[in-house]
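In this supplementary section we document a worked example of the pipeline. Step one takes a protein sequence of length 1894 as its only input; no multiple sequence alignment statistics are reported here. Step two produces a three-dimensional model, which step three serialises into structure tokens for compact storage. The input and output of this example are shown verbatim.
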Amino acid sequence: MIQLQRVSWEDPGKKFFVAVEMDSTQQLSDNISELAIFKCARVWIPDVEEVWKSAELTKDYKNGDASLQLMLEDGANLEHKLDPKTKNLPYLRNPDILVGENDLTALSYLHEPAVLHNLKVRFIDSKLIYTYCGIVLVAINPYETLPIYGTDIINAYSGQNMGDMDPHIFAVAEEAYKQMARDERNQSIIVSGESGAGKTVSAKYAMRYFATVSGSASEANVEEKVLASNPIMESIGNAKTTRNDNSSRFGKYIEIGFDNRYRIIGANMRTYLLEKSRVVFQADEERNYHIFYQLCASSHLPEFKNLKLSKANDFLYTQQGRSPVIDGVDDTKELCNTRNAFSLLGINESYQMGLFQVLAAILHLGNVEIKDKDSDSSMIPPNNDHLTKFCELVGITYKDMAQWLCHRKLKTASETYIKTIPRLQATNARDALSKHIYAKLFNWIVEHVNKALVANLKQHSFIGVLDIYGFETFEINSFEQFCINYANEKLQQQFNMHVFKLEQEEYMKEQIPWTLIDFYDNQPCINLIEAKMGILDLLDEECRMPKGSDDSWAQKLYTHLKTCSLFEKPRMSNRAFIIQHFADKVEYQCEGFLEKNKDTVNEEQIKVLKGSKFDLLVELFKDEGKATSPTGQAPGTGGRTRLSVKPDKSRDTSTKEHKKTVGCQFRNSLQMLMETLNATTPHYVRCIKPNDFKQAFSFDPKRAVQQLRACGVLETIRISAAGFPSRWTYQEFFSRYRVLMKQKDVLSDKKLTCRNVLEKLVQDQDKYQFGKTKIFFRAGQVAYLEKLRADKLRAACIRIQKTIRCWLARKKYMRMRDAAITIQRFTRGYQARCLAKFMRRTQAAIVIQKYQKMYVARKHYRQKQAAALAIQTILRAYMARQKYLALLREHKAVIIQKRARGWLARRWYKRCLSSIVYLQCCIRRMRARRELKKLKIEARSVEHFKKLNKGMENKIMQLQRKVDEQTKENKSVNERLAGLANTYTTESERLRGELGRLRGVEEEARSKGNQVNCLLEELEKLKKELSTTQQEKKIIEDWVQTYRGEMEKMVSELKDQNGLLKKEKDDLNRSIQEQSQQMTEKMARAIAAETQQLETDLNEERSRYQNLLTEHLRLEEKYDDLKERISKPGHRRTDSTHSSNESEYTYNSEFAESEEGSRAVEDLTRGMDTSLTLKLQKRLTELEQEKQSLRNELENKEEQFQRARARDESELKKVRGAELEYESLKRQELESENKKLKHNLAEMRQSLLGGTAASAGAPGSPAYKVLLDQLNSSSEELEVRKEEVLILRSQLVSQKEAMQHKETMTEVAVHVEDISKLKDADELKQAYIGLKDTNRSAAPDFQKLNEDGELWLVNQGLKETIRLLEHQLQTQRRNYDSEVESLRGELQNVKEENNRQQQLLAQNLQLPPEARIEASLQHEITRLTNENLEQVADDPAASREARVVILRRMVDLMEQLEKQDRTIRKLKKQLKVYSKRIGEMGAGQAEGQTSPGQMVDEPIHPVNIPRREKDFQGMLEYKKEDELKLVKNLILELKPRGVAVNLIPGLPAFILFMCLRHADYVNDDQKVRTLLTSTINSIKKILKKRGDDFETVSFWLANTCRFLHCLKQYSGDEVFMKQNTSRQNEHCLSNFDLTEYRSVISDLAIQIYQQLIKCMEHILYPMIVSGMLEHETIQGVSGAKPTGLRKRTSSIADEGTDTLDSILRQLNAFHSTMCQHGTDPELIKQVVKQQFYFIGAVTLNNLLLRKDMCSWSKGMQIRYNVSQLEEWLRDKGLMNCGAKETLEPLIQAAQLLQVKKKTDEDADAICSMCLALTTAQIVKVLNLYTPVNEFEERVSVSFIRTIQTRLRDRCGSPQLLMDTKIIYPITFPFNPSSLALETIQIPSSLNLAFLTRV
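The serialised model returned by step three reads:
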């Protein structure tokens, strides 16, 4: 009796319900017969389109109701009627929090709609294709390439428990691999599904995982061969179908063999039921096997010409499907991959071409056309082209094959007949032959693939991967579908038994009462097929009948099997039958069953093929015996040979023996497969095809549920739901439902606490069971508990909201009250201010009115007064003018006559003058042309410079021309005004004199009286003249006024032009400043970018070099392991034998020693594979060469980087100075031009002001001529000045070139200084930029700065100048390089001379001290004098250079003398030490020679200990035979812990260096070499022995670095001696240069560092996931969600569980250990940075692969954990080491989990925040985001699409996971020690008493 409790989960604010089932007959369904369901419950109802549709109750249901009132998700109302018989209610929906779970068994309600909905949500919304269903992995084909199968993903799943990561095929493969190693039991992975579901791909990825994780046990690359078998089998066994572009048309079982170390050693493949009919027939939209299309696509290649192939549409066997091309597949490339796979598996080119020849022959055979001869016979037309090609390819005769294609042989008891056959039978015989050949070829390839994959070593265990067809049902089902479904029946039976067994074991292990659960047993169906008198048995019997047919077999089936309930006869057919399979009913058509079961072929055709001259074809048919029909007699009508799918080679070829039918063979092979699977531990992968249209991420519920029913997933669900599907550990239950417990309920025993609480919460004890470690729940109980938990949390949330809202409301009220009071205060103040303002304005208005009225009255009075005065003035002036005009008219008559006569005279004069002037112009033009020709000849020398400076000169000339024209025009205008003024003054004076005369005449007339009449007449005339004169005067005044206006207008225009010039000047200054600023910024950016690029390149080179060192070390270790494995027992190498490690680090070794070592290695590796040895040696040589080249390149890069940085800094300073100088010059030039313009403007104003009172003359006036003359003279002067400027500039350029040519013979610094002194600094700047970076952007377009293009011309001229300067700089660089080479030669000569001087010094040392210096100086002076005299005599011009050389050599000589003095002092000190030793030794000998009874005359002096300590040189002496003891005690047997605690850091390094100093001191090169080689090899040995001990590796890393620093510090190089004391400088090495050994030791330090990193990663890796992700550092923030069968690691810190504190303690241990060992601080920073990168990368990778970790609360946990790590960095003072930056991707991922993910603003914020994450990582986190509580919401699909759209243009790596194997390149900054060597004391605990202090 099973009772299921059902709980529905509602949205917040809706009503919940609990329903209890009382029906004991239901096992899978949650339907309830007697229950009460309340309103708002959510259920699943059946639907035709979507299979299941979600709905919600709108009305309470009561027992006995006939229908349910529902509302669909789209808002439509529906009345769902219940079945009146069963009264089964619909399925209940799971809570939203459980939707999308990784394991379907984690669902509270386990039924079909829940499973289908969960798969759909994961597939469509989260883009997750894998889901667990108990022990089954459900894989949905996405029809899209996903980035989830890379090596990084494989590494992430390697070593993980199956439930700890998200579902994946790699998780299943890892589980199989782990169980094989743990349980010592063979494993099987069963991959099933229908065509197109992805079985082949899943099996391929599983094999790739094994090949990647395990590796191979030999160098034969077995794992590559295993993977190489895939393209071969796909090409010959896969084809395109309507459901799948790469459908496997055969089943295969691959056994991957492993040795005792679980490494791949081989593989074996078994195939099942190849679909041979596809060779001759394909349906629409389908293809034949891929290999045919690959050959046709590659027919154009030369090696395939003899196959005589063409396009696939030209052959019958490849054109029937009318779909010869697959989108996105290149058949030519695929054939290339297939051929490469053949080669890798050992199938050579000749065999490959033979295979292709057979395949091409099959295609040609299909094109052989057979025609009707008559009704009973057929024929092949003579000379059939395709048959001819077929016979040529297979090596047979045309006649024989043409005959037996159209004839057959009939045998009787006495004789044999040959009979013709009709065309249809002949065509069928041809197709049967094609299928038979292809099957033979297929079996041959499989056999040779297995030979290539066979294991050479003993197989310890294996993992089998079964890729077999799933359950199939079509409209027409035949023999193939029958066999496939039969195989699936067997597999389903095995699956059911295994699931049932696991479920039973789980209950028994937990001691839960076990009740047998009925499950579907398909044994009756299997018996129906394979039992005696079953379907197969009856089929074989009918095949043995002479006249058996499909119809007679069908009747036998109806007769014998009619009593079986699983067998049915169709109503409308007598040639079909129906079988009730476990998945569905299938109707099979009997037509073709017998023929396919017999599988016959014409025997004579086989004989013809056996007689072929083609060896491969004969090999295919060599095991082909003489076959007969199943009856053992000759058939009456067939005459065919029957062949099996896999012939048994051991059978007799007698014609009387029966051959096994295809069905019998398949049954036997299937039985063998089941035995193999039953002997292994199975793992199940069920592949689901989501739709039939191959659309990416499209889910068809109908097709999916059909496959779920067929593949056993729902059966697993049913078995789980029948018992206790939900299982929690006590710790997980306590953590999740702690909120439901009161404080008094919590006991120390959590198991008892859970029991007490659960008994209170769930009253029915049958709903749960308590096991030993877990609590088991019935279906629906988890939902009920989740409902209680949500209610409790909701009540707590409401209380929190109530309190917070009260606080917020009060806070808002107080804020509003304060605001109201403030507003009132300000309002009243404002009103008071307004009143005061109004009163002030009223008073002011009165005062304004008073003064305004007074002003108006005064204005009216003044207007009247002015009008009266004006009227009086006008009247009086009018009267005076009338009188004056009368007198003037009389006088004008005389003037007119005078003017007329004068005009005639002047016209004649002007004509003469113009002729004369024209003649003068012609003569002057001729002279000017001659002068111009001379000037042009003179200007040719500077023509090049004029072209270069054309733009600038044109600019200057135009500006000067404009200024001169304005000046001349002003002068001409002033002169014309002055002339007019003089003319007007003269005429006025004359008129006044005439008026005076007339007045005298008038007076005279009055006096005379008698002449009145004459005078009156004359007066009238004068009046007329006067009026005329007045008119002329008026005209002149008007003209003067007009001209004055024009002048004012001209002045204003000049002012405007001046303003424009000023503006242009300002714009030019601004543009120059901006340009200079841009240039400076651009240069700074370029320098920074180049510096960054150089640093990046340097780091890349370092990383590559260090990776090569790692690879080299790995090969060395592998080589040593191989030598140890092949060495004989007890065999040991002598000390004289050098290993490969020693040979690498032994420099200047003797040839005999290396030869002896090579012979010893040959003796040791005699039993090893020769090819392997050669490959290893070649690889070692290549690595050494590459290492040396990389080392040289690294040094060159560093030198180039330093030189480039120094050069850039110096040139930047010079360019900045040049820019400032250029700006100052340009500013001065513009200021001078401005001053000049101002001066001209002032002169023009003065001239205008001076001419206002005068009149102007006409253009022909003298003033105009004066202006014209001045203009001409100014233009001539300007031309002269231009020519002078050109001449001066050409001279300046020639002088500069001459100076530069001279200065190229001196040092480079002089060139740079001269260039910096150039007048045009912009040229220098542009030249520098052109030389520095030719790829930079061009200068701004100066053409836009003005309209006439003047600056553009200037720019062009500057560019020419730049090119000239670039050429000059390049020439100077070449000269500099040549001079550097000469200086190097001189340096070499100086070194040689130094050697000679040393020899001379050695000779002089034999002389007395006074004579030594004298002799050496005399010798040097004589030599220098001779050299000087020789050079002066040879080349007097080189005397200066000779003097320089002499001075240099004199300086070198002085330095040599100083060095010699130091050497002499050093030798004196050593001599004293030796003399003391000799004295002591002599005293000791004398003491030893004196007998005890004798008296010694001279007393023995005691040893002066303080004096010896004072003279101690910091060296340690040892004997040659003590070297091994030194290495053993100091390196091999040294305990790092004791040394680190008790002694000074780096003591072994100091001791080794002091020993090395003594070897250098005594000049013993052999001793130096052996000591260094022994030290290096011993360190390698101790690291190989204890490389997993962090303290040992850290200790020797610190000592190796200290030893390297000592070699640098005491090398004698000035670079490393800057921080030394004088005493330390005396301890420098004197005889040997150990630079090469420094590089070797640096490489050793790099290897030790990498070993240290690996050691730390090995220690930290198990802690990271548990401490950073799983452990709840902040308790109570999150609780574990309900999980399924595959339980994850608990997030509660049990005993032994790693937490964040564990990680911090381990980091403290690492840091303290390195500090104790004296590791360099910079090195510690690099180690910590690497540690933090590894922590962040592993954490982020696991986060991206674990859906249960992607939640809001987990993001808070991660951020808290990261803050703790940052706090640790801060405490250790390591915040600046770059470790924090390595955690940035993890920090951003945690922030991404916590931010809002709804609106577009949220999307923008995410895109700007997650800069350290790739697009794939961001999308993955959003897809995996899972709500832990009901208050959280899932991320919508539209929001994820928005993120993808906005991140589409982001450049970055498409890789999903971070590479945890990256090791940052390591550097060892020089860190000298202040410790004096002479102060170091050697403790006795080191057992180094044999060392003597020197």
